[in-house]
Write a structure and sequence with these properties.
734 residues; alpha+beta; Rossmann fold; 5 domains; 5-stranded parallel β-sheet; 24% helix; 32% strand
């Protein structure tokens, strides 16, 4: 039927407008010499005015659907993976005792019981039963629970719905908030009665939450495998974390996990050969633990050979420089270049030496790490333009820079250059030459330093603190006031404190795409005492590899590709960074870089990266991971025939639907309250039948079509106006 919904104001405005237009149309018709044509035109004018006024009164076309079947009561039950949690206590009405069963078994027993008969007594109601959130067989890892969708779908399909009974643990992880469906039910006068299933407290369990391993490591070197474990046991647990590969090789670490807490730790793993390998990290099932499926995780990591290009810039050949030069020269994975700017003798010459700082971008861009010793801006040292080049290399091409200040205090002159922002510490300009020590002072590792791979001098994390305590001390340190914000302090002065606390001496920070390390002592060479090269070589080798890690994730002749995060999960946005070069090795100035992406299911897409405004050939882009598995990336410079760079990104399959989680009856209670229902127990089903019978019959469904916003109405009005305008033109009336 046709309905109008005018307000008193719009009603009188519309009537007045129609009367005025009608009078004017009659006057126009009477004065016209062509009354027939004028009558048609004025009729069109009146019709258009009438349509506009009716639209102002908000017309609707309403149809009423009267149900032809009995009122229905829908029983929805949760069939998700979380319902396999064994923490549901059977009531006496279902069992002679009160055993603990899975939530799914509890629901099945409840549905099979004779407690639902009162709901359909005397044939007053029809009871329908259906599950929801059943995990698909082909993608169980991506299965989840949506509490809103099944209720909303039920309201759309059922025209004679009287009430809904929901059996669930209340856990949801997909879709819209469940209260949205409860609000729709309230508008339909369909109450929701919720029956919560499961325990509100977490099951006794040890859950290996995550493993954040790097995507690759250097053959013959240790990689750090961070992980996190959550305990919901009410007691302290002493356990062993075990990491093993397919060949049976393994590393273990003992852990003490406090009750009801989450801990973060890591394990070292030495890569013995090239190629991809699958590792498994696991913890044994503890006494009293009820969920054993989340005690292990598998991941992939690749072993690669290396060739790290390092540039060392220094003035005087002090002891720190000499032993650093020896350490990097003898490292088979490092290609060393030195620039020694002696203030009296001039630049040094010889094997691995250059006589001037690289002047071309292509010559500087090849270096993965730059060590800046006791060198600054001045005559026969660096220029401000060269400092700007170093900063550009670090921020745009993911290289690293190591600041190694010395007793000459030359590095304080860098505070007036673009390298100032890269320094991770605030230096005291009044003590440029640093602070001497009369006795040997130790370095103390911070909490971050004890976990960092940079400061890992032992073969295991257990022996590392003892090694640092035995290291020879230092007799000089840089004039550091404090660390800047956004940095990570790995070691501090063991004897002195400043006004901001312990003096930071080993500090790191990210800088654009690259990394920065500040080493505020000049006595690392003393670590060789009694052990020769063991700790000294290991430390500087780890520094070089840590700084060049991202830069060498996937490198080719014309393109270098790296991405973050390394171990994404479905739903994560991946940031892609690429550096492109021309045939001469210089950063690409004019050109385009494309990434061909192949998903684990075979889907292919191409994205074109955007170039930044610098002259470093840096490109960036993003895409979204939506599946677990191996994503193949292929980077090319568009328009060239060079071999593309290919790499594989492994997305970890994360089960969003987990077992062992506590039930959430508060969600069900809120939904029931909004829909004007309530929380019930199984034994209340008999009374619930009488309560539902006392409710009024479901109202007929009313379908409303708002004609005032329907496109067909607007199209008709435009057609009438077009006819009127055309008629006036043809009749010669303007």
């Amino acid at each position: 039927m046709f309905y109008l919904n005018p307000t008193p104001v719009t009603l009188w405005i519309g009537i007045s407008a129609l009367l005025l237009i009608g009078v004017l149309s009659v006057i126009s018709w009477q004065r016209s010499p062509h009354r027939k044509r004028t009558a048609i035109l004025e009729s069109l004018r009146c019709i258009a005015a009438l349509v506009v006024v009716i639209l102002l009164w908000q017309p609707e076309w309403r149809t009423t659907l009267h149900p032809e079947s009995k009122p229905r009561i829908a029983v929805l039950w949760d069939d998700s993976k979380s319902m396999t949690t064994a923490d549901a206590e059977l009531p006496l009405i279902l069992s002679g005792t009160t055993p603990v069963v899975t939530r799914a078994e509890w629901v099945k027993k409840a549905l099979a019981a004779d407690l639902w008969a009162p709901l359909q007594a005397n044939g007053a109601n029809e009871v329908i039963t259906q599950p929801f959130a059943t995990p698909p067989a082909d993608s169980a890892s991506r299965a989840g629970t949506d509490l809103e969708a099944p209720l909303a779908s039920l309201l759309e399909k059922e025209s004679n719905l009287r009430a809904v009974i929901l059996l669930s643990d209340g856990d949801f992880n997909l879709g819209q908030p469940p209260v949205a469906a409860a609000q729709k039910m309230r508008l339909r006068n369909v109450p929701l009665y919720s029956i919560p299933v499961g325990s509100k407290t977490r099951l006794p369990d040890l859950d290996l939450l995550s493993v954040s391993a790097p995507t690759y490591g250097i053959v013959g070197e240790n990689v750090q495998i961070p992980f996190s474990i959550r305990s919901s046991l009410a007691r302290q647990v002493r356990t062993i974390v075990r990491l093993r590969d397919g060949g049976g090789r393994e590393r273990t670490k003992e852990l003490i996990i406090p009750p009801n807490t989450e801990i973060y730790d890591s394990l070292l793993w030495r890569l013995e050969k090239e190629g991809a390998a699958t590792l498994e990290l696991s913890i044994p099932v503890a006494d009293g633990e009820l969920v054993a499926t989340n005690n292990s995780r598998k991941f992939n990591i690749a072993g690669r050979p290396e060739r790290i290009r390092v540039l060392v810039v220094e003035t005087l050949p002090r002891w720190e420089y000499r032993f650093l030069h020896n350490a990097l020269t003898r490292d088979p994975g490092v290609e060393l270049t030195c620039l020694l700017l002696h203030p009296q003798l001039g630049p040094a010459t010889g094997k691995n030496f250059i006589t001037e700082f690289p002047s071309k971008l292509e010559d500087l861009a090849k270096f993965d790490v730059i060590f800046l010793g006791d060198v600054g801006v001045g005559s026969d040292q660096l220029t401000k333009e060269q400092c700007a080049l170093i900063r550009g290399l670090v921020e745009n091409q993911a290289s690293g820079v190591v600041f190694l200040p010395g007793p000459q205090g030359n590095q304080t002159s860098l505070l007036d250059t673009e390298l100032s922002d890269l320094l991770p510490v605030v230096l005291d300009a009044e003590h440029k030459t640093g602070m001497p020590e009369t006795v040997a002072s130790p370095l103390n590792l911070t909490t971050e330093g004890r976990k960092s791979l940079l400061t890992m001098l032992g073969n295991s994390e257990e022996e590392n603190p003892d090694i640092w305590r035995r290291l020879p001390g230092f007799y000089w340190h840089a004039p550091v006031i404090k660390a800047k914000g956004g940095t990570e302090v790995l070691a501090v002065h063991g004897n002195r404190r400043g006004k901001f606390g312990p003096i930071p001496l080993i500090v790191t920070k990210p800088a654009g795409s690259g990394k920065v390390l500040f080493m505020g002592i000049d006595s690392a060479w003393r670590w060789r005492r009694g052990v020769e090269d063991l700790y000294h070589y290991r430390f500087w080798g780890q520094v070089a590899r840590w700084m060049s890690y991202q830069r060498n994730m996937a490198a080719g002749q014309r393109v270098r590709l790296f991405y973050t995060p390394e171990r994404p999960v479905p739903g994560t946005n991946i940031t892609l960074n690429a550096n492109a070069f021309d045939p001469n090795g210089a950063p690409l100035q004019d050109g385009h870089v494309a990434i061909d992406i192949t998903a684990p299911d075979g889907r292919a897409q191409r994205i074109e990266l955007q170039k930044n405004d610098s002259a470093w050939g840096a490109y960036a882009g993003r895409f979204k991971i939506d599946l677990p598995g191996a994503w193949k990336l292929r980077a090319t410079v568009i328009g060239t025939e060079d071999k593309p760079v290919e790499t594989t990104l492994f997305a970890q399959g994360v089960e969003i639907e987990k077992t062992g989680q506590p039930a959430r009856p508060e969600v069900l209670e809120e939904m029931a309250k909004i829909s004007q229902g309530r929380i019930i127990q199984l034994k209340q089903l008999a009374d619930l039948g009488a309560e539902i019978d006392s409710m009024p019959e479901p109202r007929p469904l009313e379908n409303r079509i708002p004609l005032w916003s329907d496109w067909r109405t607007i199209a008709g009005l435009i057609a009438v106006l077009a006819l009127f305008w055309s008629g006036r033109k043809l009749s010669g009336v303007f």
